[in-house]
């Protein structure tokens, strides 16, 4: 049975409703100490490749193409194991995908949440 999948900024207050908290960024959030993040896991292997992340540069006008490229990366062997792991978590627990990105609706966390919801 699929559970709720949400996403938000890692800098926001934690909530009991978060369920499992998984950081999905390739690099650690600036200015945040590890104990402040209250993470269950940091799954950097599911983040977009460095090349894709640099190309995108969080430009909303590139989001549609970013989404297409990132979904293709999730099917690649390098991302597949991490993506499957997230799918397993989402099948059993509430899942909150965390990112340091300011515009979370145009982030890999938003793409992952949508992708995971369709896979449940």
Can you describe what's shown?
With 120 residues, the protein is of the alpha/beta class. It has one domain. It is 43% helix and 13% strand. The protein has 5 helices and 4 strands. The protein has a 4-stranded parallel sheet, with helices on one face. The mean pLDDT is 92.
Shape: globular
User: How many DSSP helices?
Assistant: 5
What is the number of E strands? 4
| Cα radius of gyration in angstroms | 13 Å
Widest β-sheet, arrangement of strands: 1-4-2-3
Q: Helices and strands: which structural class? A: alpha/beta
Write the layout of secondary structure elements.
Layout: E1 5-9, E2 20-23, H1 34-37, E3 41-42, H2 50-56, H3 63-75, H4 77-92, E4 95-99, H5 108-119
Parallel strand pairs: 1-4, 2-3, 2-4
């Amino acid at each position: 049975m699929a559970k709720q999948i949400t996403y938000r900024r890692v800098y926001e207050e934690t909530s009991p409703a978060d369920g499992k908290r998984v950081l999905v960024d390739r690099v650690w959030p600036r200015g945040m100490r590890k104990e402040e993040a209250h993470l269950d896991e940091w799954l950097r292997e599911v983040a977009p490749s460095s090349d894709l992340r640099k190309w995108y540069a969080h430009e909303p006008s590139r989001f549609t193409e970013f989404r297409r490229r990132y979904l293709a990366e999730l099917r690649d062997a390098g991302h597949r194991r991490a993506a499957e792991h997230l799918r397993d978590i989402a099948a059993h627990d509430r899942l909150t995908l965390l990112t340091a990105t300011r515009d979370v609706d145009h982030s890999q966390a938003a793409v992952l949440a949508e992708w995971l919801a369709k896979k449940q």
